[in-house]
Amino acid sequence: MRNFTLMLIALLIVAFTANAQEGTAYTDDFSAEIDYLTAGVDGTIWDGILLNSGLWDMGEIVAEITALNTTDNPGTLTFASMNSHWAVGSDNGAAIYRTVKNGADFEVQVKIAGGDFLSFGLAELVPYHMPGIIAKVADDTTFILIQVFDIQDWSAVIGMRDIVPAGDLLQENWQTGFTLADNPYIKLEKYENLFTGYYSADGVVWNEIYSVEKPEFAGKDIQVGLYSATYTESVGTVHFDDYSMVDYNEPGAVNVAKELSLKAFYSNGAIRVSSSSNLGNVKVYRTDGSLFLSRANVNSSQLSIPVQNKGIYLLSCESAGEVQTQKVLVY
Asked: What domain range is 307 assigned to?
């Protein structure tokens, strides 16, 4: 009876449907060669480029984009600027964006693949070089940022700022003590009025920065994308890679059940994984977030993973063109 009960618990834990909104995905691996400063954004996933485009203040310095292309460092988006500000009272920054209509929910993530950072081997710090992800109300100075910042004494930091039209700093929060090379992924999510920022080592397991309610975005068109900021006359360069955004189309769309193809359970000393299509990359994490196993390109619909220690494990698998996650109880 005991074994049956344990198996029943395991099956209840791993019986899996994912709550997911229906949305449209836009991705860019920056493999196509283009110089956005000369060619513009036509024919790409992007809708436009922002530069000195906020509510103009005569005291603001004119910002300049010195590079915005996939040719200087092929396979990445090279974004460089000077005198570009996204901060309290200063909105003359530079950004490339796609518009999310009518305040719809979205998720956006990107990898910091390199650039002018100590983390990537730069010998001397570029002062106040702070690029990242931006979400900005169109025709307004309300915006929220995820910023990466390489500071000599703090090590790398990743944080969020949110700004309202009056130029007041509502909140900011910084995570410190690691290098950008260790945690190169950042993500911003909007669900209804709640914005949440994350950083990650691998783009699979995410660490939350913080969440903030932003009703100022409700029902408004939002320019979502990547930005550059140096806050000084120094030129700062960042290389972005693996950009993806999901636009959930309708404001406040409710989650709908979506049946996925992945199944997993524990039996006879191993986690047994099966899928309706071949598995790609597979990773297994312990409950403390540490990586237990990683296998690339499994190319089989079934996989057996030997496990000795009891506990709950988090399984992440690529299957049927999407990443699916699932908890498995090892007993």
From this structure: 2-16+260-330
